[in-house]
Specification:
Elements: E1 4-8, H1 15-20, E2 27-31, E3 48-51, H2 59-68, E4 72-75, H3 85-90, E5 94-96, H4 103-118, H5 121-129, E6 148-152, H6 156-167, E7 171-175, E8 189-190, H7 193-199, E9 202-205, H8 220-224, E10 231-234, H9 243-251, E11 257-260, H10 283-290, E12 295-297, H11 306-326
Parallel strand pairs: 1-2, 1-3, 3-4, 4-5, 6-7, 6-9, 7-8, 9-10, 10-11, 11-12
């Protein structure tokens, strides 16, 4: 008997990897759409589901899955805030995640965004695309080896990015809930969030988002303490940043630049194409895109590398295999 898995959010270029890595011969239903309230019925014939970020696994959709007899609700992501864990527990569902995959994938994107803003290449290429080739004072920049970089969240991704900056000679500081001893070959010291804001030329966020605990940890007060030419990068979760404060700081030239691969309510725009004259359905995202090149927005593409994709698919298949053959869930996510 085959085991049918409904996989939401599978891009066309990802499909061959899902097929080629399928060593357990699951019956895969690959769906390009993210899970919404309107397409939950597509998995009515499935035994399990595999999600990704921006899929809506709220109580309403989990209730429908329960009606379909689905008990395994797995995600191929590190984050799991798109799944209502309380509802999943009530319906007797098991939820697992992928605890890690190619930390360099997200770290490289954060590093790239930071350098674009730090060396003003986004501004310069915008100008040259408009046939403006004069060098202006806005292009003037310090160099990385004489700068300080702060990493918020010293996990595998944060550590990978820290090593990139250290290799270029930067001083690296970190903020985390506890000192991560493994990183002290790269990080000069762990400091408070306030000291990080005051000391660093570039700050990159890699902290996990915990609903009800750390919303807008990068608050207006923290942003106001950053250097006027400081650069803030967020490739973690949009909920961690006060975007209203970011927008005000950019408009008032109290912040050098902001880049994000994640936003609050990003599913309203990510995955969609809009006509240039069309109004976006989210005012905050509209304001941020209008601030380009001081604000750089990418559409949640941090994990879009070959090693990362292979890692998330392989681990997801192993999660299903252990569940079905040993009733084991080493990467289970439990409600708090």
């Amino acid at each position: 008997m085959t085991f049918r898995i409904g996989c939401y959010g599978v891009h066309s270029y990802e499909a061959p990897y899902f097929e080629n890595l399928n060593k357990y011969h699951y019956d895969l239903k690959l769906l390009p759409e993210f899970l919404t309230h309107d397409n939950i019925d597509l998995i009515e014939d499935c035994d399990a589901v595999l999600l990704r970020g921006n899929c809506i696994a709220d109580r309403q959709n989990l209730s429908k899955m329960a009606e379909y007899g689905i008990k395994l609700v797995f995600t191929r992501t590190v984050g799991f805030d798109h799944i209502d864990l309380d509802a999943a527990a009530e319906f007797g569902m098991k939820v697992t995640r992928v605890p890690g995959y190619s930390p360099r994938s997200v770290a490289e994107l954060a590093f790239t965004q930071a350098m674009m803003l730090f060396r003003h290449t986004a501004l310069a290429t915008t100008r040259t695309s408009q046939k403006q080739f004069k060098v202006t004072p806005e292009f003037f920049s310090p160099e990385i080896h004489e700068s300080t970089v702060g990493i918020i969240g010293m996990g595998n991704i944060g550590y990978a990015e820290a090593k990139m900056w250290k290799a270029l000679g930067a001083r690296v500081l970190a903020y985390d809930l506890s000192v991560k001893e493994f990183s002290l070959d790269t990080v000069e010291k762990f400091v408070s969030l306030e000291e990080l804001a005051q000391e660093c030329d570039i700050i990159s966020i890699h902290a996990p988002y915990v609903r009800g605990k750390n919303e807008q940890m990068i608050s207006r007060d923290i942003i106001n303490q950053m250097k006027p030419n400081g650069v803030l990068i967020n490739t973690a979760r949009g909920e961690l940043v006060d975007h209203s404060a970011v927008i005000d700081a950019l408009k008032e030239n109290r912040l050098g630049g902001f880049a994000a691969d994640v936003l609050v309510d990003e599913s309203q725009v990510f995955g969609h194409n809009f006509d240039p004259s069309e109004k976006l359905p989210n005012e905050t995202i509209t304001e941020l895109t209008n601030l380009y090149p001081k604000a750089i927005i990418t559409p949640h593409m941090g994990s879009l590398t070959k090693p990362a994709l292979e890692g998330m698919i392989t681990t997801s298949y192993e999660n299903f295999h252990l569940a079905l053959t040993e009733n084991s869930y080493p990467n289970e996510v439990l409600k708090k």
